[in-house]
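Supplementary notes for students who missed Thursday's class. We covered one full example, reproduced here. Read the sequence, then the structure, then the short commentary at the end.
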Amino acid sequence: MANILDGIKLSKQIKQEIKEEVSQYINQGHRQPHLLAVLVGDNPASQTYVNNKIKDCQAVGFTSSIIKLKSTITEEELLQEIKKINEADDLDGFIVQLPLPKHINQEKIIMAINPEKDVDGFHPTNFGKMALEIESFLPATPYGIMEMLSRYEIPTEGKEVVVIGRSRIVGRPMSILLSKKGYPGDATVTLVHSKTVNIAKHTQNADIIITALGVPHFLKANMIKKGSVIVDVGITKLEDPTKEKGYYLAGDVDFPEVAEKASWITPVPGGVGPMTRAMLLKNTLFAYTQNISK
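Structure (token representation):
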């Protein structure tokens, strides 16, 4: 049976480290780090996500604030709002919660964010720096996975890694980070996606599989080799009347059967999700240290 890569336990440890670092800065007379979230409309999942971020901020000693905007806001009005946020001196980082209403061009909004405050790591400037191995904000989910591999001392050098999914939020940055020089990196990375012929042919030879497909139970035991490390980024709500809430959260991995064959595996929930949230705090702390040293 596989060992569990426990994102809840690890994220608590990271939050404790951040809290201690913040209290040192405050004792030296600095202000608290400040993270802001922009929420457009009333998508319940986005609302929950932002509320969790606020709780995380409180837990580590950050100031957090939220700007709630109506779903009818025009693109121009949102761009004006972002301009104001970009210019706020007492603000270290901010996120614009996605998805945005359909009439707003997501690209335009991401481009408008000041790269120095882009703690989601989505701005092309930060993405480019990441690809060139220049210190920058990393997208929170890939950053969380790198941190998890590092802290659980999962060997990556020379390993065959298959990343399933090519989104720019997870798949593509993941493939870049794992092929970079140094640990956790130096891996041989194959990126597979919806147009790949015979995904199993690739995954069956992989030492590490990172799946971010959003297809429940996609990865079966016959698609992996014995002893591989499995990181499941997928999370899908599936209806189940036997459950108290009427649904359960499923990953991309058929957990019971894959866990019998893997050496390490992330659970869903409780694996990658908590790490993503912790890395957003780590990115904000990085922005804050840059700011107070100016």
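Commentary. The mean pLDDT is 96. The first strand starts at residue 3 and ends at 4. If anything here is unclear, bring it to office hours.
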